[in-house]
């Protein structure tokens, strides 16, 4: 038996009037998921522990079976693992987004944050911009490291964990009250606007109708993580397939293999089929027991408030990931259990994460359960199946009593 998680980041949502009261997951054409739903257990899962902030960090730790209250030390330290940054016990890792803020002639704190991802900037362009920031702002105390797309890293030597606001939580708002109280961090953010706003890369982006990547934004501070081995914990050898440094970092910390898929970039146009085939090959050719396939696009479209593209992302997850996995596993004669779920909701109405429970679907290729005909938030709620501690759901997938 093989085991698979297909994680549609931020896929869950709220009923939307323009969709006649349906959620994007209800409205989307998801023939594969709905076919599997008739043979699956459907339910709700609380992935965000009470009192913790709703993020992909805590939620994905829970889905992988790690209690966030025990293992979570901050988001950025997990991303540091992914890009090979060795943290000391006194280092503080901080996420460094490259964002878009408004350009009007007002003090920095009176500007508005427009886009947390700067039109999903490419890693190649971001590398040039981050290098410009690094040349001006790096010191023995502060070091900048390149990540992927808009997601980068600051290491603060002998620093402290400070309260910082995720940029995707304040889209469209004036930034002043959300800037760091720590002077050194706030000053670097302000200086970055001067460095980046009229950089040649941004002049060209503006001509192309793209948002300028004209400021850095710090958030997600934390200390060196210490995850236990996934294989020792579960008895399963696992692989992680994701374009996002956070997920790769969790995998590195858990001793899982990270598979890099060409063209997998965390955007709406990621290499969906490549991710699916990487999972199948790892399970059927390479001897692995467990594959975690993470798709970022639904979450990104939720943050952008783009209904059409969120539906498209969900349909791509269905047609181009789950369908490929099911067809390939069947053709190769391999029995498997598959868990399909979001990590958290990212409602289009608010363009950020919530702590509401998410719908899950647990499919077993060897069983015919015949319970419901659709997989969505409504059917999950009607099922009466609730997992209150999200980190325990993987035990059900892996049949660990």
Structure overview:
The protein has 401 residues and is of the alpha/beta class. The protein has two domains: 2-72 and 226-398, Alkaline Phosphatase, subunit A, CATH 3.40.720.10; 92-222, no CATH class. The chain is 35% helix and 18% strand. It has 15 helices and 13 strands. The chain has helices at 24-27, 31-37, 56-63, 68-71, 75-82, 123-137, 183-196, 200-207, 230-234, 245-254, 272-284, 297-304, 307-331, 377-383, 393-398, and strands spanning 2-8, 40-45, 92-101, 113-115, 142-148, 151-156, 215-222, 238-241, 257-258, 290-295, 336-341, 358-364, 386-387. The strands form two sheets. Strands 9-8-10-1-11-12-2-13 form an eight-stranded mixed beta sheet, sandwiched between helices. Strands 3, 4, 5, 6 and 7 form a five-stranded antiparallel beta sheet that branches. The protein is globular.
Radius of gyration: 21 Å
Q: The CATH topology of the largest domain, please?
A: Alkaline Phosphatase, subunit A
Strand content: 15-25%
Outline the low-pLDDT stretches: none
Number of domains: 2
Query: What composes the largest sheet?
Result: 8 strands, mixed
Could you outline the blueprint of secondary structure elements for this entry?
Elements: E1 2-8, H1 24-27, H2 31-37, E2 40-45, H3 56-63, H4 68-71, H5 75-82, E3 92-101, E4 113-115, H6 123-137, E5 142-148, E6 151-156, H7 183-196, H8 200-207, E7 215-222, H9 230-234, E8 238-241, H10 245-254, E9 257-258, H11 272-284, E10 290-295, H12 297-304, H13 307-331, E11 336-341, E12 358-364, H14 377-383, E13 386-387, H15 393-398
Helix pairs in contact: 5-10, 6-7, 11-13, 12-13
């Amino acid at each position: 038996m093989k085991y698979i998680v297909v994680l549609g980041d931020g896929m869950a949502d709220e009923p939307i009037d323009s969709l006649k009261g349906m959620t994007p997951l209800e409205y989307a054409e998801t023939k594969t998921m709905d076919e599997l739903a008739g043979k699956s257990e459907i339910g709700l899962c609380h992935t965000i522990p009470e009192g913790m902030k709703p993020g992909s960090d805590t939620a994905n730790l829970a889905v992988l079976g790690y209690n966030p209250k025990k293992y979570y030390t901050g988001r950025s330290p997990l991303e540091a693992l992914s890009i090979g940054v060795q943290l000391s016990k006194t280092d503080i890792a901080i996420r460094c987004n490259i964002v878009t803020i408004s350009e009007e002639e007002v003090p920095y704190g009176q500007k508005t944050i427009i886009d947390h991802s700067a039109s999903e900037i490419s890693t190649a362009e971001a590398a040039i911009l981050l290098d410009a920031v690094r040349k001006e702002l790096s010191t023995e105390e502060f070091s900048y490291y390149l990540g992927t797309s808009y997601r980068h890293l600051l290491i603060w030597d002998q620093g402290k964990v400070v309260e910082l606001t995720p940029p995707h939580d304040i889209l469209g708002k004036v930034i002043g009250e959300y800037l760091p109280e720590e002077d050194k961090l706030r000053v670097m953010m302000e200086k970055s606007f001067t460095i980046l706003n009229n950089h040649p890369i941004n002049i060209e982006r503006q001509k192309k109708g793209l948002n300028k990547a004209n400021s850095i934004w710090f958030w997600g501070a934390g200390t060196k993580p210490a995850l236990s081995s996934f294989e020792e914990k579960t008895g399963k050898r696992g692989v992680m397939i994701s374009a996002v440094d956070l997920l790769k970092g969790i995998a590195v910390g858990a001793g899982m293999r990270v598979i890099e898929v060409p063209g997998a970039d965390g955007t709406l146009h990621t290499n969906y089929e490549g991710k699916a085939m990487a999972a199948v090959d790892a399970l059927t050719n390479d001897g692995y027991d467990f594959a975690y396939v993470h798709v970022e696009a639904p979450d990104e479209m939720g943050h952008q408030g783009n209904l059409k593209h969120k539906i498209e992302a969900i349909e791509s997850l269905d047609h181009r990931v789950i369908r490929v996995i099911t067809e390939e596993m069947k053709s190769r004669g391999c029995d498997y259990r598959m868990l399909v779920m979001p990590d958290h909701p990212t409602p289009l109405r608010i363009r950020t994460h919530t702590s509401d429970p998410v719908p899950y679907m647990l499919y077993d290729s060897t069983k015919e359960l015949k319970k419901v005909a659709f997989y969505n938030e409504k059917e999950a709620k009607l099922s009466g199946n609730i997992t209150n501690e999200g980190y325990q759901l993987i035990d059900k997938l892996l049949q660990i009593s």
